[in-house]
Specification:
CATH architecture: 4-Layer Sandwich
Number of helices: 6
Number of strands: 16
CATH superfamily: Ribonuclease Z/Hydroxyacylglutathione hydrolase-like
Strand order of the largest sheet: 6-5-4-3-2-1-16
Helix content: 10-25%
Number of domains: 1
Strand content: 25-35%
Largest sheet: 7 strands, mixed
CATH class: Alpha Beta
Shape: globular
């Protein structure tokens, strides 16, 4: 099985709730209550850990509220976690890291390793005073579970050739890839990304939330067929719907 014992729930846009084989919940990119695609029943989610790919509002817009309900680690690039500490998030929860690094969450009772990969995008947060705060570089993650299975979360990014190395190094079986275009990869680039990483399954995200995000899962499937990658399954989720392995 691709991710034995793992359950992934899409909460709309690029927010995901990932349940480990041991039943712990990881929230990726905490944008729920203010996310127009997120079902209301997830607006008060209380995860065991939070992972943040970058600092744009459509990825961390609800981090301060959710951080109060999260007893576990809050993981992101060092600049972002440092800023969260300045803004009042409990420093004991913050796990700042950088690209190329791997952190184990074992000491927090979560049997996963989190590796930070590259992504090409930008990262900033607009405050209530309309101040733009730089929050370091964007990133992706590879989550390796206790089973040895690995999940690649690309984050907001364009296509880049080093995705092939990510595949060779971590050997993920499933990838979460943006497909919306305009701010990230479009379906064609996402198909190339899936091919480079060499996964069995792709979960598309960052599409449909706003009119600018025009890419669709059907287009991703067509582009994979064009590449001769018909064996890569496109897992299409509706917000609030889960896939279990």
């Amino acid at each position: 099985m691709a991710l034995d014992g793992v359950e992934i729930t899409w909460l709309g846009h690029s927010t995901f709730l990932i349940q480990t084989p041991e039943g712990k919940e990881l929230l990726v990119d905490p944008w729920v209550a203010s996310n127009p695609s997120c079902p209301d029943e997830f607006s008060d989610v209380s995860p065991d850990a939070i992972l943040m790919t970058h600092g744009h509002n459509d990825h961390i817009g609800d981090v301060f509220d959710i951080a109060d309900r999260c007893d576990g680690p809050i993981v992101g690039i060092f600049d972002l976690t440092t800023w969260l500490g300045f803004e009042g998030v409990d420093a004991d929860k913050l796990v700042g890291m950088n690209k190329g690094g791997t952190v184990s969450l074992d000491e927090h009772g979560i049997d996963v390793d989190v590796s930070m990969t590259n992504a090409h995008h930008s990262s900033s947060f607009t405050t209530e005073d309309e101040e733009l705060v730089y929050l370091g570089e964007p990133a992706g993650f590879v989550i390796t579970f206790s089973t040895g299975d690995a999940l690649y979360i690309a984050g907001d990014t364009c296509l880049f050739g080093d995705m092939e190395w990510i595949g060779e190094l971590y050997d993920p079986t499933v990838a979460i890839l943006p497909i919306g275009d305009h701010f990230t990869m479009d379906p064609q680039q996402a198909a190339f990304a899936a091919d480079l990483v060499g996964v069995d399954e792709v979960i598309p995200c960052h599409y449909g939330t706003f009119p600018l995000l025009t890419g669709t899962p059907d287009e991703l499937e067509e582009e994979l067929d064009e590449l001769g990658d018909e064996d890569i399954d496109v897992v299409v989720l509706e917000p609030g719907v889960s896939k279990s392995w």
